[in-house]
Amino acid sequence: MKVQFLNSFEKDLNNVPLPVRHKVVELVGRIEAAVSIRQIEQVKKLRGYKNAYRIRIGKFRLGLLARGDLVQFVHLLDRKNIYRVFP
Q1: Which residues is 66 bridged to in the sheet?
Q2: Bond into 19 cis (ω within 30)
Q3: Where on the phi/psi map is residue 48: left (φ > 0), alpha (ψ -120 to 50), or beta?
Q4: In CATH, what number is assigned to the domain containing residue 65?
Q5: Under a CB-based contact definition with an 8 Å cutoff, are residues 53 and 43 in contact?
Q6: Domain total for the chain?
Q7: Is the pLDDT of residue 87 over 90?
């Protein structure tokens, strides 16, 4: 799959601890190797949205938008704040 990082995600990535960043790098590799968004572990579809998904990384949540073979990384925020701005 193709991966695209939005500016909001890059800003959020700078504000998370280093171990979380390492997990995100590993996750990006798994997403690029996957054929479908459903093949990725721990991906949950958000109710009420066609293309919005989230992945849990400790107390952080990674907000994704998936359209065809393109996955956009939108936000990486604390679990308390992610749903205020995503999707």
Answers
A1: 71
A2: no
A3: left
A4: 3.30.2310.20
A5: yes
A6: 1
A7: no
For position 79, what pLDDT does the model report? 93
Q: How many CA within 13 A on the CB side of residue 29?
A: 6
Domain, as residue range, for 79? 2-85
- 3-state SS record for the chain: CEEEECHHHHHHHCCCCHHHHHHHHHHHHHHHHCCCHHHCCCEEECCCCCCEEEEEECCEEEEEEEECCEEEEEEEEECCCHHHHCC
Q: What is the pTM of this model?
A: 0.90
Q: Is 52 helix (H, G, I), strand (E, B) or coil?
A: strand
pLDDT confidence of residue 41: 87
